[in-house]
Amino acid sequence: MKALKKFIPLIIASALLSACAGNNPEPAATTELTTTTTTAETTVVTEPAVEIPEGHAYAEFTNGMPEGWECADGWCNGSMFNVTWRKKNITFNDGKMQLIIDNDTVPKDGVPYSGGEFRSREFYGYGRYEVSMKAIKNDGVVSSFFTYTGPSDNNPWDEIDVEILGKDTTKVQFNYFTDSRGNHEYMHDLGFDAAEDFHTYAFEWYEDKIIWYVDGVEVHRATENIPVTESKIMMNAWCGKGVDGWLNAFDDTKMPLTAEYEWIKFTPFN
Q: Exactly one of 163, 204, 260, 262 is catalytic; which is it?
């Protein structure tokens, strides 16, 4: 992501609902905001804006669509995915991003639902990946944060997953694939409901291991057949088909269903 130095007013007049395809201003690529505001009552001073270093990635949604990221639009992954990705299913409101599952207004190839998928344009390798998110509570759905590359990128299928299943949002599932070989699922009991508030989920990807964290605490690690291929940073919200044993049958009586994201961050290892 190319860094931009911009100063953002502390007070934003209104947080308007805006789609991924909308004419949203590009946000500053910063992790902090800079401004000084003085009134008769208070003086507020925040820290200087920080430029995103080369090789790092950061996204926050105060000004809508961030630079260096994109929305999937117009296709379905097939198999167990019972959604077509639509950029209109990604919105920005209240300084957060929403990934939405809903009925598809123009169903494609017999797929009745639409979903949101958001991803980086660039590829990233070994380092720490973090997200602040709030999951969907609903049978048959997945709210996710992961790295992925595959044949569509002329690469082997490598992937590292954080997946919260809507049937039980008191747990999170970790998994990974190396050259299409998976079956590394691990279910962790969170001790809280991931659909009720924002929490930080992270993993550190090393050459010889992957370590997963929840709210800064290590909760799982893997040490065998670790992925090696640089990947895009991705997140999506979708409902399944033919996987009722994993997700439960999809309950479509409460749509639209929304997963929310506050920020995304990647820090490479030196």
A: 163
